[in-house]
Amino acid sequence: MSILRSTIDTGSETYRANRAAMEATLADYQALVAQAVAGGGDKYVERHHKRGRLLVRERIELLVDPDAPFLELSATAGAYTEFAVGAAVVTGIGQIAGTECVILANDPTVRGGSMNPITVRKMLRALAVCAENRLPMVFLVESGGADLPHQLQLYLGAGEIFRDITALSAAGIPTISLVFGNSTAGGAYLPGTSDYVVMVDQQAKVFLGGTPLVKMATGEDADEQELGGAAMHSAVSGVSDYFAVDEHDALRLGRSIVAGLTYRKLGLEPDRAPVDPRHDPDELLGIVSADLKVPFPVREVLARVVDDSEFDEFKPRYGPNLVTGFAHLHGRSVGILANDRGVLLNEDANKAAQFIQLANQIDTPLLFVQNVTGYMVGTDYEQRGMVKHGSHQINAVTNSTVPHLTVQIGGSYGAGNYGMAGRPYNPRFLFVWPNAKTAVMGAEQLAGTLSIVARASAEDRGLPFDEAADAARTKQIEDQITHEEQAAVMSGQLYDDGLIDPRDTRDVLGVALSAVMTNECRGQRGYGVFRM
Question: Rounded to two decimals, what is the model's pTM?
Answer without folding.
Answer: 0.93
